[in-house]
UniProtKB/TrEMBL annotation:
This is Phosphate-import protein phnD. The keyword Signal applies. SUPFAM superfamilies: Periplasmic binding protein-like II (SSF53850). Pfam families: Phosphonate-bd.
Amino acid sequence: MNLVSNIQKFATLPVLLGLAISSATLQASDLAPRFTDANGDMVADAPTDPKDWIDPNVLIFAYTPVEDPAVYAQVWDDFLKHMEKVTGKRVQFFPVQSNAAQLEAMRAGRLHVAGFNTGSNPLAVNCAGFVPFTMMARDDGSFGYEMEIITRPDSGIAKVEDIKGRSLAFTAPTSNSGYKAPSALLSAEFGLEAEVDFTPSFSGSHDNSILGVVNKDYDAAAIANSVLKRMVSRNVVSEADYTTIYTSQTFPTTGYGYVYNLKPELAEKVKEAFFSYEWAGSPLEAEFTNSGEAQFIPITYKEHWEVVRTIDAAMDVTYNCN
């Protein structure tokens, strides 16, 4: 099964250019036929027959593979211990290496709770039965990150138009800030097409793209600035290593949730674990404070991912969930 979006040629990006797209397009459900959505919330309903629920002895958790999995196994360890206390289950960190591997694991029933990156949420919802219910936010309840296009200070690239004839790194086809949003932006606003006006590459992750720019593997890269801030805070790169030539509007960040057929009582315990976690003094606070996050807030896929679905619609993105 191929879970990677079929990215086709697009004409405009309504969100960035202030154009409209029909509400019917935004609200239409793209769920795979094996799922149902009786309440119209655009995510898969839990099975009505209890025999179709899963109640694993060990809950498997995976964080979106944007950076070194070994680093994030430690960052999430305290939270997962908290989830163990709340759910009464052992919880194991699953260090996924790619978005595709994470999606396939949930679809196959090997992944129960996860944080999927912004661009992968629609694919996870529609093809893997992912039910996102929370994301990280700042103390005041605000949330999100921006897509930035970065380059080296000595690259000779001072503005987006200067990318013409140069190389630019994307992360993966499912990434919002690492591919879909910048691709649409470069074409619609600046008339730059991959393979025609610049040489594209896929680095596999935001940290690879950032390090690739710093180490002169790429002339420029489209990245999530939340990842960049965390790398600066860990002294992996310094602010003198790069310069930003474009910053987008704000997008929702990683969505956290569970697989649709998790036993409903257990799913509620998973929610409780997120919303009862004490951030103060925690490893999560230490890691994410530089990008502003300080709590988990409730979200819905239908509302909070509308901007991402708009981008997908503008790019004629379709999902192969067969």
